[in-house]
Design goal:
Blueprint: H1 12-19, H2 31-46, H3 50-75, H4 83-116, H5 119-146, H6 157-183, H7 199-205, H8 213-238
Helix pairs in contact: 2-3, 5-6, 5-8, 6-7, 6-8, 7-8
């Protein structure tokens, strides 16, 4: 991703902080971290430190096996199955228990979102998805250009980036305002700057070439800004 796109995307972590809700939360699968660890180990093995990585991995497995074997002999001498089989069973059982706990925790977080989400927040979350999609489209276009296709270069890129920055600013402000009103239903927003937006600036920047790629992106940013402005007015009327 090019430098001018860095930091423009509204990440899930930032979105959850802005809304104070676990929105777009995904269920954690215990096998995924293990797969990432294995891929990382394989990459390290292929590198110059491969022998060291293999040694550490084997040493860890042997150490775990020895510790479990000692514990069994001291506290569970009645166990007759081999220690290595017991190690597999314990690992599988622990993983299953952790996965069940993660599932119920995820369900609780999803229920929390459903119980607290408002109509305005649903619309703003959809606008965030559209906004992030525009950034992703630009990033993909940049990659295609860097692959040797100069004909797809984005014209007036600076204007598009500036429009996205203004749209991001309005989205963040709208999400903050929605959170204040949602968490403080009796609170009256007195600071008018919370409802100020950059729509006039975005409108002035809109180009007439709607069919062009940069025109389409600018228009998309403008449409998102219009949605945000509408929801800001709706929020203001609620106060």
């Amino acid at each position: 991703m090019r430098n001018d796109l860095q930091g423009l995307e509204i990440s899930q972590k930032e979105l959850q902080k802005l809304t104070n809700l676990p929105v777009n939360d995904e269920l954690i699968i215990v096998t995924h971290p293990i797969k990432r660890l294995l891929r990382h180990v394989i990459e390290q093995v292929k590198g110059s430190e491969g022998a060291t990585v293999v040694f550490i991995g084997v040493a860890t497995l042997v150490f775990s096996y020895v510790i479990l074997d000692v514990i069994i002999k001291i506290f569970a001498s009645w166990v007759t199955i081999p220690s290595w089989i017991l190690l597999i069973i314990v690992g599988f059982s622990a993983g299953s228990i952790i996965q069940v706990l993660l599932y119920f925790l995820w369900k609780q977080r999803i229920r929390n979102v459903k119980n607290n989400i408002t109509h305005s927040l649903k619309i703003l979350l959809n606008d965030v998805d559209r906004y992030n999609a525009v950034i992703k489209a630009i990033d993909i276009n940049d990659q295609i250009e860097e692959a040797g296709n100069p004909e797809v270069v984005l014209k007036e890129r600076e204007k598009v980036i500036e429009a996205l920055k203004l749209t991001r600013h309005d989205l963040v402000r709208a999400l903050k305002t929605e959170k204040i009103l949602r968490e403080n239903k009796k609170f009256i927003v007195s600071k008018s700057e919370l409802f100020a937006d950059n729509l006039a600036t975005l409108t002035a920047m809109q180009v007439s070439e709607q069919a062009s790629e940069h025109g389409r992106l600018l228009n998309e940013a403008l449409q998102i800004a219009l949605d945000v402005q509408h929801e800001m007015k709706s929020l203001q009327s609620q106060s």
